[in-house]
Design goal:
Largest sheet of chain A: 5 strands, mixed
Shape of chain A: globular
Number of strands of chain A: 12
Order of helices and strands of chain A: HHHHEEEEEHEHEHEEEHHHHEHEH
Oligomer: homodimer
Strand content of chain A: 15-25%
Number of helices of chain A: 13
Helix content of chain A: 25-40%
Radius of gyration of chain A: 21 Å
Largest interface: A-B, 42 and 42 residues
Distance between the termini of chain A: 27 Å
Chain lengths: 404, 404
């Protein structure tokens, strides 16, 4: 039973008036107390009180339940917090992976209500992806009891730069057949929902900002170490998309202009040396069979010196790449994501040492409050899909409209 | 005769109400027509008309003179534009150079009213700089007939990262003795004015944004090629300062971790190979006497193949460094500044070729509107001093207060 009033609020993005600002804050942050709303919005406490009273009367906001199923870091807070009324609608996040598609649905209070995924063959087409996504959404609605009509939008996390306004995939390194795809044209007819789209690393950054390691941080760098290296730049809680959707592609900064050829068409890109892909290749040679990132880390933890060395070497190069990002931005916070983070100190010790060695403003020479904090992300496997939900909640990357 | 009303407007930064927004826009952009104000502020044309009528009545805004002495790109526009009343006050910009100090004063309509400079010995102290600056400001006031009481603030462009809130110089590569200097503590007692401070490249970017090659662009990268390489990141018309003031230090991204030792303490920094410093060293060896950047370019233009080659080689490496910045940001615009730009195509052809070769999203594969534009800056020698004036007009980097 979505309220028309709330739908209007959610869709119109009334930035100017106090009620619009409060609803926008709750949409982005899940649950907040009146004091937190006043602090984050800059509104007077008395204004917040009267706005909340009005919004409660019209059932647009409700008390947050003490313990939600949400992955919010705020779960378990006392009952003074409010959220948007979960009955008002739900958002869908879709992650397009190289061999799988995943759909997460969350209501507007940020509670996760469904999580479905399916294996896909290599090089599946965008059209197939749209049809499979539609089925996954229908299954998610059926399982969670949410009406199809209550969905307010779908966010799509794409493995490649996406133009922020047209939704066109500019280059798709991981899934080359998707290059040039118009995400809206392919997904809108199947899903019949407002479509939001962005690069998967940008989505991961949004997940960390809304629910993870960057909650409360307005400015940070996201740096993902996995089979490749990706990233995102967040300024004033907004992901910088870049002119053609290419911002944050740290993995393709050139380390060695005469190095190996990269899938992107350049040579010697950072991710050729600093991701876990070369480690897996060398480990496969060592063991005579291919292994996964998880197995590499497991063997390293079990004491295999070769596997430990491979992770350390990748971390050393990744840290050098991250140091260039640190020199360019001098950010207050860097959130490191991706499956490599499961290696813990085995990754972070050499990565931080290398970062500090090569960056301009070194952590070691600064007082505590001026040191760039480098922390592990909260999510690894499901970050981009959660972040795709966040695209809808933040109204970021709405295809066919100016970005918010 | 500065109006108290306007002083209040200028100092309080009333972002919320329409008059405050109009004054803020005029402070930042100099002269604008009513239509331009409506476009840039998002206010209705009727609102702009009534706000302007009221501001005219209280003599806060006046008609822009058709041809001003300002360096504004808007000089010579028809008389429909308005500016802030120049009698309301003036701002001072100070550029701290390795061997000179320069002071430019401009009124709030953006017209330059004085420009003074003085040679300084190498390694002069901050205390000496403050005293000399005071004298230059007094001379500027005397020459231009502006009362000392009409000054509303002084911006200081410093050759090193400056902490955006404390005004402390974090590292001073060009003038090592300034490291750790508290700009406010040194300059405020001498100047008795609100002090704004930022890194010189950040100031240059502000000059290009207010009066130069980036007028009308909300997001761009500034990249300076001179004796070193510096830069700045502008997002939504704000210069990103970084946690400790180090953002935009592109010249210290590591190209070769085993390379030459840099003055910053790292090895193989971009500026060791991509600035004109190595070119000048090699040219000095060729000619048996040291030459300046201007002489190098002059000889190259006169056909000296060695000098041409030295500029091309620097441009090739600078373009590779700029490509990393391009990969990280995918910016709509890059403004290239510094004295190297005087070489024209001799610099820009190899620089653009190298940029396109090494960056991820290549200009050559994108339609025109998705190509990163790379243009020469409008200013070379006086950009950081003009930008220091801009610090005051934009209220950016006010020391001892939260940045705006």
């Amino acid at each position: 039973m979505p309220s028309d009033d709330l739908r209007t609020f959610l869709e119109e993005d009334r930035k100017g008036d106090p009620s619009g600002r409060v609803v926008r804050l709750l949409r982005e942050r899940g649950s907040l107390s009146a004091a937190e709303i006043a602090r984050a919005s800059g509104l007077a406490k008395s204004t917040v009180s009267s706005v909340l009273a009005e919004l409660r009367r019209s059932e647009i906001v409700v008390d947050a339940v003490a313990k939600t199923t949400s992955r919010s870091s705020r779960a378990g807070r006392p009952g003074t917090a409010v959220t948007l009324n979960p009955r008002a609608g739900a958002c869908v996040g879709v992650a397009i992976g190289p061999t799988d598609i995943r759909v997460i649905a969350a209501d507007v209070s940020h509670a996760i209500i469904a999580d479905q995924s399916v294996e896909m063959p290599l090089d599946y087409s965008p059209q197939t992806a749209a049809k499979v996504t539609r089925r996954l959404i229908e299954e998610a609605c059926a399982k969670s009891g949410v009406s199809r009509a209550a969905l307010i939008g779908a966010g799509i996390a794409v493995p490649g730069p996406v133009h922020p306004e047209t939704g066109r995939v500019q280059r798709a390194s991981m899934v080359p057949t998707w290059a040039g795809t118009d995400i809206r044209r392919v997904f809108a007819p199947e899903l019949d929902l407002p479509i939001f789209a962005d690069n998967e690393s940008n989505c991961s950054a949004i997940a960390e900002m809304l629910w993870g390691a960057a909650v409360g941080c307005d400015n940070f760098i996201f740096f993902k170490v996995d089979l490749g290296i990706g990233g995102a730049i967040v300024v004033d809680r907004r992901v910088i998309t870049g002119l053609a959707g290419g911002a944050g592609e740290f993995g393709h900064m050139t380390l060695d202009p005469a190095g190996e050829l990269c899938i992107c068409g350049n040579r010697g890109c950072l991710e050729l040396y600093g991701s876990l892909r070369p480690a897996l290749r060398l480990a496969a040679a060592r063991f005579g069979a291919s292994i996964t990132i998880e197995e590499l880390i497991e063997r390293a933890n079990a004491g295999d010196v070769g596997c430990r060395r491979l992770i350390e070497d990748a971390a050393d190069v990744a840290g050098r790449g991250l140091a260039m990002v640190g020199t360019a931005f001098n950010p207050p916070l860097i959130v490191v994501g991706g499956r490599a983070t499961a290696a813990g100190d085995l990754l972070f010790e050499p990565l931080l040492r290398s970062f500090d060695r090569h960056t301009l403003i070194k952590r070691s020479e600064m007082p505590e409050h001026l040191r760039t904090r480098i922390v592990a992300g909260t999510f690894t496997a499901d970050d981009s899909c959660l972040g795709a939900v966040g695209l809808v909640l933040k109204h970021h990357g709405r295809v066919g409209e100016a970005r918010v």
